[in-house]
Amino acid sequence: MKTYDVRTHGCQMNVHDSERLAGLLETAGYTDIAAVPRGERPDVADVVVFNTCAVRENADNKLYGNLGQLRPAKTANPDLQIAVGGCMAQKDRDTIVKRAPWVDVVFGTHNIGSLPALLDRARHNKRAEVEILESLETFPSTLPTRRDSAYAAWVSISVGCNNTCTFCIVPSLRGKEADRRPGDVLAEARALVEQGVVEITLLGQNVNTYGVEFGDRQAFGKLLRACGDIEGLERVRFTSPHPAAFTGDVIDAMAATPNVMPSLHMPLQSGSDRVLKSMRRSYRSEKFLRILADVRAQIPDAAITTDIIVGFPGETDADFEETLRVVREARFASAFTFQYSIRPGTPAATMPDQVPKHVVQERFERLVALQDEISWAENHGIEGREVEVLVAPFEGRKDAETARMSGRARDNRLVHFALPPDLPESDRPRPGDAVRVGVTYGAPHHLVADSAATGGLFEVRRTAGGDAWAATQDNPVPGRPTVSLGMPSVGAPKPVAAPACR
Predict the structure, then answer these.
(1) What parts of the chain have a pLDDT lower than 50?
(2) pLDDT tens-digit profile of 200-232?
(3) pTM of the prediction?
(4) Are 302 and 263 in contact (CB under 8 A)?
(5) How far is CA 341 from CA 91, 277, 285, 432, in A?
């Protein structure tokens, strides 16, 4: 038995790609190291795959530090194979093998399907195999997948990005936007529902430009409405849109489609119009706030989250104050805040007026404090309300000691909820089931719903998602589904030009 271990860094795209890498390796005959009983489990798998990110600060150091930790294991066992994929592999290519010559395989973002063959080739040739494609040849959804969850799933609608944000290296690593046909997306969603999935997240680098390839600017709104017609699909989410391309028809579709959740992640990046222009973000703060107002006019309870970069080159105190102003007006449910770091290969990396680290740190701390204050106030406002929670396996670090379970509300807020004191084990909600509970406390980063502890509201609804989770308990890794085959395209294949006669 040969084992594998896929280690994921970065965004949701990478998480979903890692599900495909796991599916490919299992199809090729490897076994997840987590499926081996603890007493028999080796310290290191036979194949270790790093699915890397190139966006965050110190991504390089993190990768090479992890590779360095594996060097003694490789020396002790030359048959151990180490593969590096993802955005860092796409960016660094041959550099990885030069800096870490004990790596066996390097593959890019466009050819994850090549991994098993590259491992075989490296084993046969006794040398490192590096294969980086410059553009996508086959949409990754055609590959076998081993999902992390029995009741929730990612569904890719596009890959790549056509924007040119000066701080972002993703377009050069993921390529130009490529869209799947709506029929392919909906067919995958229906197939997932048949497997017990009750929640899907539509995934793309910029979901609201979906349709650019086939010339339909309203394709994303239509896709959301079509998801509403899929029987058994209870929750639909999407990430991430771009404010510049966000249109009213998408808001209309969100409001009119009951299974599209009242949550929206809308990246701000900066509240300063001058900085937004330098970032090549083709919207300004007034438009951004207007979008939020339009969303809340139709979906009053929508929880809106965001991304913000602090310390972009040239950011002045006045620019940062503008960011604080917009954050105060936007009333985000939460924010992912980042200190700007130079990413080689981006225009921002060579811009003048790089902001000193201590200044960035001070601004970052002020922003985090402000957002925490807002998040806490917003969550306080939910106290006393009823929420429906989709139960998760391990959302809360303290669930065991507090005797609570956890999950996500419809607006995607994290909820820790109590169980009735005398609840029989057979009546406990399962991951994938839904519960209705009353919120008793709003903390800065989560809600507490202890209504059941005092005889208050506690209703459990069994779902197909809970059934799917229960059916996985005898799997090699309990809670994780087995491999599902990739999704073929729907309809007639695209025409292929005949080769020229010679």
Answers:
(1) 496, 498-502
(2) 999 998 999 999 888 899 999 999 999 999 999
(3) 0.90
(4) yes
(5) 17, 18, 23, 38
Phi-psi region of 59 (alpha: psi -120 to 50; beta: other; left: phi over 0): alpha
Beta strands (DSSP E) in 127-216 are: 129-131, 152-156, 158-159, 178-179, 199-203
How far does Cα 300 stand from its chain's mean position?
A: 25
Give the list of residues 6+ apart from residue 160 with CB closer than 8 angstroms, or none.
136, 171, 174, 175, 176, 177, 178, 205
Report pLDDT for 496.
46
> What separation in angstroms does the CA of 51 have from each of 10, 151, 442?
8, 24, 36
Helices in 381-453 by DSSP H: which ranges?
399-402
Cα gap 285→283, rounded to integer Å: 7
SS3 461: strand
pLDDT at 502: 45
Q: What is the pLDDT of residue 499?
A: 45
Partnered with residue 418 across adjacent β-strands are 404
Q: To 5 degrees, how large is the angle CA 93–CA 136–CA 249?
A: 125
Give φ, ψ of 98 to 5 degrees: -70, -40
Tell me: cis bond preceding 272? Omega within 30 of 0 counts: no
What pLDDT is recorded for position 487? 66
Burial of 235 (0-12, 13-18, 19+ CB in 10 A): buried
For the chain, report the end-to-end CA distance as a whole number of angstroms: 48
Backbone angles phi, psi at 171, to 5 degrees: -55, -35
- In the chain, the amino acid numbered 14 is N
Q: For the chain, how many residues are written? A: 502
